[in-house]
Design brief:
The complex is a heterodimer of chains A (about 300) and B (about 290). Chain A has about 300 residues and is α/β, with parallel strands linked by helices. Chain A is about 45% helix and about 10% strand. Chain A has one domain: TIM Barrel. Chain A has twelve helices and eight strands. Chain A is globular, with a radius of gyration of 19 Å. In chain B, about 45% of the residues are buried. With about 290 residues, chain B is an alpha/beta fold. The chains are: A alpha/beta (about 300), B alpha/beta (about 290). Chains A and B meet through loops of A and helix 1 of B.
């Protein structure tokens, strides 16, 4: 495992980010118009990449059960639709989700390490993670300590991620940078490099609790970090933009960007995910518009 | 200098150009160009319905009295801009006296529906006798998003007569204006915008009804269609397109200039009756002793 072989001092120098260049490049992705069969294929792919998410203080077991049902039955009126990739819940809801999903192939992702703030003692974060895994989580979405990161204690952040990865073992670890709190793209890049070298299987933009969340500029910067890592080591790291992607159009633009920066190998839910709650229905409505030729209404799609 | 005006469309409280970038030229009776008007597209319909749906919730839940105040305000603002409306109608070939009369009639009609805002509920609702221990009552609730094809032969009175009962009843609207007489429709949008009508409650598009109506009629998020003075073929096609989500299709072929072309029936056409069975103690048969 990479975590054991790396240490903080071996992280390569992070290149500085040309913000104006990033904005121009990203703007070009957003001019792409995807129509007809390609759109259908793209929409279907988006659905299969969604981590259907509920992360509210008011989450109840029934809310989680309902979402797990939605995850398996996106829109039963239409045959041939995929299921989402995973559901994403709090550790306390993992056992409920496990029971609801039974032997489904849909994964259960649990946030951990005192999500969303990450402001808890290290021991608590480890217990939080272990609890989620014991309850049946397939994937762990941890948050980094942004306070420590911004205070310049990058080694602390690295060690923390490495320790959590150790607990995760073979279970995949997504590391949430919470880019909305990192202020600059340079910081986003540095945090990405630290997370990747500490053993992250995925890097993820946001908790969804802070605005701005997954802007295309931020996702672009993180994708570049993944590409540089791949060019250097030949190892793939996954990407998960989360928060703020609520329309099909934006999701498709993200796919275009992933394809152009990382290539087709990343275009599956093994390597790319969307963290979202309202995205699924928008994609379904767009999909049905393509099928029927008629603009759709939210009234005829299940809420999650 | 005469400015050749470009009339824009009205979606979600904004005045954008059509997303299609298309225009058509409206000419006076001598064939001289007077203005460019947006040739709206299916995507404008989509955007307008989205805006109308978003606005529907808070508009329908607003107090009926407040809706009345806002409608009255529309009449006030229209009254203040009478001259412009009369000029636009005459530009499009209408006689001066007839134009003046039409605008006066529009103002009267808006005030008329402003008055109905907090009164139709009493007329349309009822307490129903039932043979069980229930307090059983029916209330009128707005249908939702209503698509309106404004009467094509009038510049304003048709539009006003069709739109006012729809929004008085708490619905939001997407309206296709008269293709050949579109000026007043967009100027009326400016009146709406300055009358405290919340963004998206009324959306007005100009262009070809033939092109846009099918999209509106098929749209699953539109709950009713209000047609006026359309030919049989168009009415039939609209009825067929409306089937999928069981839209109401209301057709009124009228000149819209008589007092008989206003009334509570125009409001009730866009209301749904909800009946509630509320369990109570035995109230002694069918007497009215509750």
């Amino acid at each position: 495992m990479t975590a054991q072989h790396n240490n903080f001092t071996t992280i390569p120098h992070s290149p500085s980010i040309d913000k104006v260049g990033v904005e121009e490049r990203v703007a070009r992705f957003q001019t792409r118009s995807i129509k007809g069969p390609s759109k259908m294929q793209g929409l279907s792919m988006v659905l299969s990449m969604i981590d259907l998410t509920t992360l509210e203080g008011k989450d109840t077991p029934n809310k989680v059960r309902q979402m797990c049902y939605k995850a398996q039955h996106l829109h039963d009126f239409q045959e041939g639709l995929p299921t989402v990739a995973a559901v994403c819940v709090y550790p306390s809801m993992v056992s409920v989700a496990r029971e609801a999903l039974k032997d489904s192939t849909i994964k259960i992702a649990s946030v951990s390490t005192a999500f969303p703030s990450g402001q808890a003692p290290f021991e608590v974060k480890k217990m939080d993670t272990q609890f989620a895994i014991d309850a049946g989580a397939d994937e762990i979405d941890m948050v980094i300590s942004r306070g420590k990161f911004l205070a310049g204690e990058h080694a602390f952040v690295f060690d923390e991620i490495a320790a959590i990865k150790e607990i995760c073992g073979a279970k995949r670890l997504k590391v949430i940078l919470e880019t909305g709190e990192l202020a600059t793209l340079d910081q986003v890049r540095r945090a990405s490099d630290i997370a990747i070298h500490a053993g992250a299987d995925f890097i993820k933009t946001s908790t969804g609790k802070i605005q701005p969340a997954a802007t295309m500029q931020v996702t672009y910067t993180m994708l570049m970090a993944i590409r540089d890592h791949f060019d250097r080591t030949g190892k793939m790291v996954g990407m998960k933009p989360a928060g703020g992607i609520s329309t099909s159009k934006l999701a498709l633009h993200n796919l275009v960007m992933v394809n152009e920066i990382l290539g087709e190998a990343w275009l599956s839910n093994e390597w790319f995910r969307f963290g979202a709650s309202s995205l699924a229905n928008d994609v379904l409505m767009q999909y049905m518009k393509q099928v029927t030729g008629k603009y759709q209404s939210a009234d005829y799609f299940t809420i999650d | 200098m005469n400015i050749l005006k470009t009339y824009k469309i009205y979606i979600g409280g904004q005045f954008p150009r059509t997303e299609s970038g298309r225009y058509y030229l409206v000419k006076d009776t001598n064939g001289n160009p007077i203005a460019n008007v947006c040739q709206s597209s299916k995507k404008d319909i989509r955007n307008a319905v989205q805006a109308a749906r978003k606005a529907f919730g808070s508009w329908s839940e607003r107090s009926a009295f407040n809706r009345g105040q806002i409608l009255y305000r529309i009449a006030e603002m229209l009254d203040g801009r009478k001259a412009q409306f009369i000029e636009e109608l005459t530009q499009q070939g209408q006689g001066l006296e007839s134009a003046k009369k039409e605008i006066e009639m529009c103002i009267d009609r808006i005030v008329y529906y402003a008055g109905w805002c907090d009164k139709y509920q009493q007329i349309l609702s009822s307490v129903n006798p039932v043979n069980s221990s229930h307090f059983n009552f029916s209330v009128a609730e707005p249908t939702g998003v209503v698509g309106i094809l404004a009467a094509q032969h009038t510049g304003l009175i048709g539009l006003v007569s069709q739109l006012m009962p729809v929004i008085a009843g708490g619905n939001s609207a997407v309206l296709i204006a008269s293709e050949q007489l579109p000026f007043c429709a967009i100027t009326f949008a400016e009146v709406l915008e300055t009358s405290d009508v919340p963004a998206g409650v009324v959306n007005i598009l100009t262009g070809s009804a033939e092109e846009m109506l099918p999209t509106l009629a098929e749209h699953m998020d539109v709950n009713a269609i209000f047609l006026s003075n359309v030919h049989a073929e168009m009415e039939k096609n609209t009825q067929l397109s409306a089937i999928d989500n069981l839209k109401r299709v209301i057709v009124k072929n009228d000149e819209w200039t008589q007092d008989s072309t206003q009334g509570i029936s125009f409001i009730s056409s866009f209301q749904e009756i909800k009946t509630t069975w509320h369990p109570i103690e035995q109230i002694g048969g069918a007497t009215s002793s509750y």
